[in-house]
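Hi everyone,

Forwarding the result from last night's run.
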Amino acid sequence: METNLILQNVLTPPVLFFFLGIVAVVVRSDLEIPAPLPKLFSLYLLLAIGFKGGLALEKSGFGGQVFPTLIAAILMSLLIPLVCFVILRLKLDVFNSAAIAAAYGSISAVTFITAESFLESQNIPFDGFMVAALALMESPAIIVGLLLVKLGAPKNRPNIQEMKWRSILHESMLNGSVYLLLGSLVIGFLTAAHNPVGVDKMQPFTGKLFYGAECFFLLDMGIVAAQRLPSLKKAGSFLIIFAVLIPLLNACLGIFVAKALLLGPGNSLLFAILCASASYLAVPAAMRMTVPEAKSSYYISTTLGLTFPFNIVIGIPLYMGLVNKLIPSIG
């Protein structure tokens, strides 16, 4: 266990604010964040990370490891939900297995941002094209999850209309977070290439404000995660164990793929965290609409109440320790 790395990660403002939110719920404080603000801050974080990723991508270019990494990211987002589905089917029905598998095949942008902040605090470099991998990994898992339901569910599902695949594909590939992230990435790339003055003008907004906004957003995430903890009892011990072990398995898979791609330590950690994280926004929204038989208390409480805090507190430094051990010669 990388105790020193875990302590360094825990004693950072974003993670401490996350704990502050948890404690607020535990001690029944009346701390409350108005509903529009977390949404606004989540949009800001996506815009800023996409813009900064575009700047870095323009600097690094498209050669070398960029396209192999992006293709590997898409393949992992197709493979991980299949592996999760096989494991979940040992205890759960098709609907819940597919919904949870889709959530774990997709990604958490906030976990990715926290991992980036961790790398910056450790002075470990990483590349901007990893933001493109983040955007590309959100949608395929949703499609895989819905295909699993389509193939495995009874043909006469009651009160369920035929899936409208055009709407599902549109929602999964052009939902707000993916659209804003990719759009900001392109704008950042074009601005860096043709308008350096524009980069300087954006820096106070996308640079200096970023860390504070991340702290505020994680404060809210701590409150929401703590509110989800009671639901874990309904999920049962199987899902609780799954929510802790599957990020470790997926992170190890990600690190081995990163090693095969010859990624450096920083990019390897980001690739691992993309594989280990789980969606608690886009996938639940899609599953509520198309798979109402699945219990939302299962796939939201496990991803948000357990996997998310596990990853940002213990997972990130633990995966970094594994990266340092398994990829020691690449820097």
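The radius of gyration is 19 Å.

Cheers,
N.
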